């Protein structure tokens, strides 16, 4: 076993997972748990927007007409409805978005980015990119970053496909 590549001992017993696999999982969990709060704190300090705020604003801005249904935003950002409502309320109180009923279906709530939201988004994305370069891409070579991105894609693609199938199979049939 290569102790240079995996210096920490596994932290828990995982039946059927060898030591190298446990160390890889531990490193993934540790780096994720460390990276997200660091990036988020830096963003809040620099631009007074949290990472989730930037992701939501970017998603809304890229949506047709700069508007997106709340349900789409919740799914895209994996947020529970109450958490999403809280985030959107905060963005709305800052004048970055506005909420209203959908034109096509008055029961649906749509969030639209405001001109002020668009103005704030540009510098926010630049700051976000700087933090990603510094804390995520910086410690790796380009080849390592590409390999990590590919590994993450191989993990997430089947999970997303299965989640889509589960959501479809949970719906009542239209017989």
UniProtKB/TrEMBL annotation:
HTH marR-type domain boundaries: 1-157
Annotated SUPFAM superfamilies: Winged helix' DNA-binding domain
Transmembrane segment boundaries: none
GO MF, one example: DNA-binding transcription factor activity
Listed GO biological process terms: response to stress
Domain of life according to the entry: Bacteria
Pfam families with a match to the protein in the record: MarR_2
Identification of the protein by name: HTH marR-type domain-containing protein
Annotated organism of origin: Mycolicibacter arupensis
